[in-house]
Amino acid sequence: MRTPDLSSPAPPPPPPPSERIGPGHKFYSTISEPVIAAFCAGGVAGAVSRTVVSPLERLKILFQVQSAGRDAYKLSVSKALMKMWKEEGWRGFMRGNGTNCVRIVPYSAVQFGSYNFYKRHFFERYAGDSLTPLARLTCGGMAGVTSVTFTYPLDIVRTRLSIQSASFSELGEKPKRLPGMWQTMAVMYKTEGGFTALYRGIIPTVAGVAPYVGLNFMTYEFARQYLTREGEQNPSAGGKLLAGAASGAVAQTCTYPFDVLRRRFQINTMSGMGYQYKSIPDAVRVIIAEEGIRGMYKGIVPNLLKVAPSMASSWLSYEICRDFLVSLKPEEEPLLQ
Question: How is this protein situated with respect to the membrane (predicted)?
Answer without folding.
Answer: Multi-pass membrane protein
